[in-house]
Amino acid sequence: MTDPQEYSRRASAWLEANARDLPRDAGLAASRAFMARLHDAGYSGITWPAEYGGQGLTAAEERAFQQAARGFALPIGVFGIGLGMCGPTLLSIGTEEHKRRYIEPLLRGEEIWCQMFSEPGAGSDVASLQTRAVRDGDAWVVNGQKVWTSVARQADLGLLIARTDVDLPKHRGITMFIIDMHDPGVTVRPLRDMTGESHFNEVFFDDVRVPADRIVGEVNEGWSAAVTTLLHERVSIGTGAARTERPASFAALAAAARGRGLLADPAVRDLLVDLYLRERAFDLFNARLSQEIKAGIQPGARGSVAKLLLSDLTLAGADAATEILGPETVAYDDDGTIAAALSWAPGMALGGGTSEIMRNIIGDRVLGLPREPQVDRAIPFRDLKVGTQAEEAGR
């Protein structure tokens, strides 16, 4: 292992030379070019296996780089799903061919990935998904629709879960596929949100042929594969946010309150203390997860704790900002960062699994509390009245 301090110094020097004043929205071509330089310099896939294009280093170097990168707006957001969810899934359960084909292009920014789980009738209950994949010779034919898919318009590849056997219960009979987003029959349509931007998309599949060697995991065992991806997603969302600046943070809002002469107000002080305690709990929990990962202990379902802490912290920051800044929180008269943060705050409690689902997972898999009754786990999927099937049954 290298000296983390020396590694951080070298990373800081490289970032200063290559990323200072680089706009976060530099454009797709510029983002790809930067990702390639990042990889060539040894700072992409720091802990990923060297035989697949990673650097083969430890979590200590990863933390050292992230600490060095805190003051830089790196234009790598479009690669986040691939780096935080899809790539780790392939490393966990993909075939050797998958790892050798897909990992290094992902780390170099040559291919962008998305994740396609949610559907119009299967959001919180993802296992109720209706998208079908039917075997046809040496391929599978996919038909259906996904929704709330981030970066789908830019993506080259994606992980998809589809129903492959309706005679099995809903948590079985699902299979995970690697989808080429440029294949015939794949249609992506943007969805405009309350910020005025299109951060999400809906994706339609019309007789899309997927080679059988693009199955991730086993046929009809896609729920297990999806859980693997979701665990990586929640750890990525929770711990990744610990490495970024938060516009509605304690430091930013305390400075704003001081500038407005509000620090003597007991109500404002209570808001700031509450926000500070939430931030400390979030940061300390993520530090613990990082130390455990360094020791080879995987967080598993405890990634849901990090995600829940982040959701609650984001909403608390939004509430504090509205109390302290008042009407300024919705004004885009400067760079609009606070207004954008407030618009995004409710979504943080939804994306990657709602806070209610996180609490269920924590109670069940972390605390060992009794599970909620699930009467549909043993019923063949074709007999369930769920999602769009329920709508069709009611007509």
Q: Assess the beta-strand content as a share of residues.
A: 5-15%
Total count of helical runs of at least 4 residues: 12
User: What's the alpha carbon Rg, rounded to whole Å?
Assistant: 22 Å
Unreliable sequence segments? none
Order of helices and strands: HHHHHEEEEEEEEHHHHHHH
Let me know the number of strands: 8
Structural class: alpha+beta
Q: Give the CA-based shape.
A: globular
Helix content: 40-55%
Distance from first to last alpha carbon: 64 Å
The count of domains is 3
Average pLDDT score: 87
Main sheet, how many strands, which sense, barrel? Answer: 4 strands, mixed
Neighbour order of strands in the largest sheet: 1-4-5-8
What can you see in these coordinates?
- The chain is α+β, with helices and mostly antiparallel strands.
- It folds into 3 domains: 4-111, Acyl-CoA dehydrogenase/oxidase, N-terminal domain (Butyryl-Coa Dehydrogenase, subunit A, domain 1, Orthogonal Bundle), CATH 1.10.540.10; 114-219, Butyryl-CoA Dehydrogenase, subunit A, domain 2, CATH 2.40.110; 242-353, no CATH class.
- 45% of the residues lie in helices and 13% in strands.
- The chain is built from 12 helices and 8 strands.
- The chain has helices at 4-18, 28-40, 59-69, 80-93, 96-107, 222-241, 250-259, 266-294, 303-325, 337-348, 355-366, 387-393, and strands at residues 113-116, 132-136, 139-146, 157-163, 174-180, 186-191, 200-211, 215-216.
- The strands form 2 sheets. It has a 4-stranded mixed beta sheet.
- A hairpin with a 2-residue loop joins strand 2 and strand 3 (139-146).
- Helix 4 (80-93) crosses helix 6 (222-241), helix 7 (250-259) runs parallel beside helix 9 and helix 8 packs antiparallel against helix 9.
- The termini are far apart.
